[in-house]
Amino acid sequence: MKILITAATSFELSKLISHLNSEGRKISFFEYELNDHRIFPLITGVGAMHTAFALARFTGMREIDCAINAGVAGSYQTNFELGQVVEVLEDRFADLGVEHADGQFEDIFELALENPNKFPFSNGWINNITKHFDNDLVKVRSLTINKVSGSTASIKAITEKYNADIETMEGAAFFYACKVMDVDCLQLRAISNYVEPRNRNNWKLELALDNLNDTLIQFLDRGNPHTIA
């Protein structure tokens, strides 16, 4: 099975790469073999633009059986534990649009600049159910943003508008690229922090990255494309 594993930054996949180097066979700079899988790690860069472009220029994209986007996320919901790994089933671009003089925000669908039900969108969301991966991870709804929420006012506005669980800077772009290129995909996120007035002291980034990579490694070591625990 050919698996593309993407992340915005190299440190988000560092433990996985170490595992591939020690337990797998390196075929080329961008390709490993492990448990009958051909694995292609790809660091896209931070944000939607870098993510979409990196996937579009990846020459082997059409031959990939499944692409996995792995990274950390901020959670709007405090019922998730910091470090918990979740699967994103719905994602959308949440800050692409117009801010009016009164502070109200309208996205591109509300402005009629884009059809909210034109493929791959459904009511402005990109929905995803993978063909290859059954798992017991909690399923969430995510927002993709260019500016991480860091003030009480912005957090209140975005949560009231979209009622999502988490936020990232790449997820919807990953889904969009995979859907347009007809590649099965999976988005995994580890909760590194709660979305609140910005305070890095409250983050559990190392724990989130450790759990995220352990989830990926566990899947690859099983050699079973249908189960992630």
Which structural traits does this protein have?
26% helix; globular; 5-stranded mixed barrel
Structure report:
This protein is α/β, with parallel strands linked by helices and 229 residues long. It has a single domain (2-228), classed as Nucleoside phosphorylase domain (Rossmann fold, 3-Layer(aba) Sandwich), CATH 3.40.50.1580. The chain contains 5 helices and 14 strands. The protein has helices at residues 14-23, 48-57, 152-162, 171-180, 205-222, and strands at residues 2-7, 25-28, 31-34, 37-43, 66-75, 85-93, 97-99, 105-107, 126-127, 134-135, 138-144, 166-168, 185-194, 227-228. The strands form 3 sheets. The chain has a 5-stranded mixed β-barrel.
Brief synopsis:
The protein has 229 residues and is an alpha/beta fold.
